[in-house]
């Protein structure tokens, strides 16, 4: 039986929630130019650059252990709640995980501070598969770098 696990990480941001969510929804492919050491290419298959439910994306990336690729589908792009959830369809991740579902949620906390939360629901293909925490490490690195860029522009 599948053993679904979930890990998450959260960070405070200085940019407006609208600006950060807008970047992820409309310009996510720009991460290739902004973080070339990690992202090698991004192709949005079909449609324009904006992410909507059903959008398929193909990424080539490197977490430091060599080139990898992944194909994801946007399960839901929720404008009102400023969240985007994905499901992995194909690629290197499926060698380690039966299912892999990342999600971005940008919101204001109870104190009015802007926050970004990344979560991953996953099911390991076998007990030796590592926790995907390196993906959350990259997500926080990207979030902080992107936040600094958006806040100053």
Automatic annotation (TrEMBL):
Q: Which Pfam families match?
A: Bet_v_1
List the CDD domains: Bet_v1-like (cd07816)
Ranges of residues in domain Bet v I/Major latex protein: 2-153
The domain of life for this entry's organism is Eukaryota
> What name has this protein been given in UniProt?
MLP-like protein 34 isoform X1
* Organism of derivation: Ziziphus jujuba
Family per similarity comment: Belongs to the MLP family.
